[in-house]
Amino acid sequence: MTGALVKRLFILALLWPFSTMAQSVSVYGNWCGPNYPATPALAGPPIDALDAACMRHDICTAQLGRFNCGCDLSFMTELRTTRWQNPAIQSQARGIYDAIAVLPCTDPFGTAQKQSLFMQDAMTDVFNGSAAPVDIMDRWRWLLNGVGG
Questions:
Q1: pTM of the model
Q2: Where are the domains of the chain?
Q3: Is the Cβ–Cβ distance between 75 and 113 less than 8 Å?
Q4: Which terminal CB of the chain, N or C, has fewer other CB atoms within 10 Å?
């Protein structure tokens, strides 16, 4: 499979959360992506702070369940409050944040909270002038096509 196709499958898996897709898809570093790494015991160390955040999320979901709202909300909080070392990594972190935000979790109230945070952050960025409405689509394009990572 090509990288672009695999990343498109990643988005489809996010939009179809109860998918049985078992494919391991790398999105960033050694730890970021659905079912990635396929064998965590064999994964390399995190390459940076974003990869380390993904590793912590993977460990949490391994312990509490794949669609655990608490794991997702903690991950989203870390992604939105960390000062990333450069704009490219910040954009990648935000793309991962966006993807996690729209993925339903085990509790409908947790899902609503994730989606509310996503919309709140997106609107705040637009209203304070730090982002344009199309920036969300740019981040999704990165996830689909691997631009920047």
A1: 0.77
A2: 3-145
A3: no
A4: N
Cα separation values, 68 from 88, 109, 113, Å? 28, 12, 13
Contacts of 131 (CB under 8 A, 6+ apart): 122, 125
Share of the chain above pLDDT 70, in %: 79
Among the residue ranges 57-66, 71-80, 132-141, the one predicted with the least confidence is: 132-141
User: What confidence tier does 142 reach under pLDDT thresholds 50, 70, 90?
Assistant: low
Q: Are 42 and 24 in contact (CB under 8 A)?
A: no
Cα(first)–Cα(last) distance of the chain, in Å?
17
How far is residue 81's CA from residue 73's CA, in Å, rounded to a whole number? 12
**Long-range contacts for 77-86 (Cβ within 8 Å, ≥24 apart)?**
78/53, 79/50, 79/53, 80/117, 80/121, 82/49, 82/50, 82/53, 84/49, 84/50, 85/48, 85/49
Helix%, strand%, coil% for the chain, nearest 5: 60, 0, 35
Measured CA to CA, the distance from residue 14 to residue 81 in angstroms comes to 23
Q: Is 43 exposed, middle or buried (0-12, 13-18, 19+ CB in 10 A)?
A: middle
